[in-house]
Each structure stands twice: as structure tokens, then as C-alpha cells.
Amino acid sequence: MAKNDYVPLFETKQVKGRILFRSIAASILLGICFICTYRLRFFPVGGKSERLAWIGLFLSELWFSVYWFLISVSRWDSVHRIPYVHRLTQRFGKELPGVDIFVCTADPMLEPPSMVVSTVLSVMAYDYPPEKLSIYLSDDGGSDLTFYAMLEAADFSKTWLPFCSKFKVEPRSPEAYFRTASEPVNDQVNVQHWLSVKVLHLQNNSFSGQFNHNIDYLSSLVELDISSNSFSRVLLDVFASLGKLEKFSAGSNNFNGTLPVSLLNFPLITSLDIQNNSLNGPVNLNCSAMVHLKSLRLASNHFNSSILYSFFSCKNLTMLNLGHNNLDGQVPKSFKNLKALTVLSLSRTNLVNLSSTLNILQHNKNLIVLRLNENFQEKEISSDPDF
Fold it and tell me: Which of 155-190 are b and which e, b meaning 16 or more Cβ less than 10 Å from the residue's Cβ?
């Protein structure tokens, strides 16, 4: 490289406040000189104990003086060196050396796997040529928990590392980043970061209260999972803003009331899971608009028999779970239209007339799994010549 093209890799700057530090150091040195002079001029001439005490004090003061001198010398002309990392590749290009990084752990109780995962992911996200960077995890305890945590981290890294590179994320430890990340609605600069999020999994936390309506800022979401929390009250109608959503799961919460209108008319939704809540009222699915809907789970809610007549035009449904609702009636003949259905669960829904149910469902030629347990109270199956 030509001399004119040379660029330094760091800049050296003098530390501020050196004059004050040197003045204080000089005063301390003067005090040490006075103390040493005093000790040497007034050597005890009395008994043995006085001489031993003098020797002990003098040696202590002498050790302090040596220690202070070494520290002060190292700080006498302190400087800061500011590195320019981006110039490293400019100078060396592809000649950067390979780097091996070892992360050590031993006890998953003292070193939680989440901390180990964050450490490994932050190292993997270094701004360094990936082909020259190798990261090794040494688990002296051989913990299965750490092993499976690293398997999950490997999947997460496929999303996390491109995210760090694209948005120049700092810090690059997931734990540190998400602890300090600003709410997108309060920081317009970070809104663009969140607009690119396509998959958001929040399941198995302890979130409570009403589900935050600010989720509608994530307009690029394709998959949203908020299941197994303690969300309550009505499920807010925010889905009109999530125009790309394909999968939504809100099972095992405490939602009540009716389903949002926008969710029942969503054109791209393929999977809808809201089982194990306290939802009720009609389910007026607009199947003519929801042409991609294949999986629908409404089990363990407070729906009544009216929902049985909501699916007759959902011809692409392959999985339908209505179990543990108080349907209290017969399977309607419109179920014959669900030609693509492979899994149907109507367990514990207070259905009646088993023969009629089987007679209708025999037209679903693709049906593989049928659950009708804890329903019919007939002592015997009535004969039906058409069955």
C-alpha cells in the first residue's frame, strides 16, 4: 500500500486533568519524604519493643511508598487510544487472521443457559469476516439443558445475526439489547427496526392484562404467538393493520367476549388457534375471504351450537377443533362440504344422535382423525339403513 494511503488504526489522546493529578502526586511524594526523614532522625534508643515497633512502622510506610510510586509512574502520562475498527479491513483486506473464541461454562444453575446463549450469540455477531471466526462452547458439566438451549440458539441465530448486521445493533447480546430496547411507539427512530419483524413468539411468559394494541405497529408480521400467558379481557380488533399475518395463536389465556371482526375476515390467515379461553358469542367466519384458512382451533371456550353453522363454506379447512364447548345439538349436514378435512375434534360438546353424525361425516373422504369422546348418551347406536 502506498505511503500516502496509510491510515492509523487508532488515535492517541492525552487524558484530561494531568496537571491536577501530578500536583497531588507531587504533594504525596513530599509527604513521604518528610515521613522517611522523620523516621530516620528519630530512631528509638529505648528497649527492644520500641525498636521493633519502629521497624514495623517504617517497613509498612516503605511498602506503601514503593506501591504508590509504581502506580503513580504508570499514570503519570496516561493516554486514551481510540480504535478505528472499520479501518482494519481497509489496511489488511482479506489478510485478517482467523480467530478462535472459547466460551466456557460448567454449572447451568450458577450460569443459566440464557446467559450462555446470549454470550455465544453476541460473539457470533462480531463485525468480523464470519469465515475467519470460530466460536467453541466448552460445557464442563455436560448439561442437557445447556445442550438443548444451544440448539434453540442455533435456530435463533439465523434471524438474530442478519438483524444485527442490517441495523447495526448495539449491544449485540440479545439479553442486553432487549433489556435496553426502546418501545417503538415512543421512539420513532427505532420504528423502522420493528417494521421488519416477521415472526414474534411471546408464549409461555407471565404477561397479563389486556393485549397491547401497539402490536399493530408490526405491520410485517407473518406469525404471532401469544399463547400460554395470562392476557385477559376482550381481544382487541387490531388485525386490520397486520395485513401480512398468516398464523395467529392466542391459546391458554383468559380472553373473553367475542372474536374481533377483522380476525374473522382475514384474507391471508392459514392457522388460527384461540383454544382454552373464555370466548363466546357467534363466530361469523367469512370463509369466502379466508380462502387460505386450513387450521382452526376453538376448543375449550364458551361457544354454543351456533358456531356449527359457521364453517360450511370453509372448504380448505384440514384441521378443525371445537372440543370442550357447549354445542348441545347435532352435527349439521353442511359439514359434508368440508371435503379437505383430515382432523376433526368434537369431544365433550354434548352432541346427540351418533348415527346421524357418522352418516354426515362419512362424506368427508379425507378424514383421518375423528374425536367424538364424552358426547353421546344413547345406550346403543340406533340402526340406520342409510348408514
Answer: eebeebbebbeeeebeebbbeebeeeeeebeeeeee
> How many Cα atoms occupy the beta-carbon half-sphere of 46 within 13 Å?
9
The type of residue at 351 is L
Cα gap 124→149, rounded to integer Å: 16
Q: How far apart are CA 19 and CA 336, in angstroms?
A: 91
Question: Global pTM?
Answer: 0.53
| 3-state helix/strand/coil string of 264-308 | HHCCCCCEEECCCCEECCCCCCCCCCCCCCCEEECCCCCCCHHHH
Lowest model confidence (mean pLDDT) among 14-23, 219-228, 247-256: 14-23
Reported as a single tens digit per residue, the pLDDT across 81-99 is: 888 877 776 777 667 788 9
Report which secondary-structure segment, H or E, holds 41: helix 18-41
Distant-in-sequence, close-in-space partners of 177: CB < 8 Å, separation ≥ 6: 169, 171
Residue bearing the bigger pLDDT, 384 or 194: 194
pLDDT bin (cut points 50, 70, 90) of residue 132 is confident
Give the number of other Cβ atoms within 10 Å of residue 320's Cβ. 23
Q: Which three cell numbers stand for residue 140?
A: 464442563
User: 233 near 255, Cβ under 8 Å?
Assistant: yes
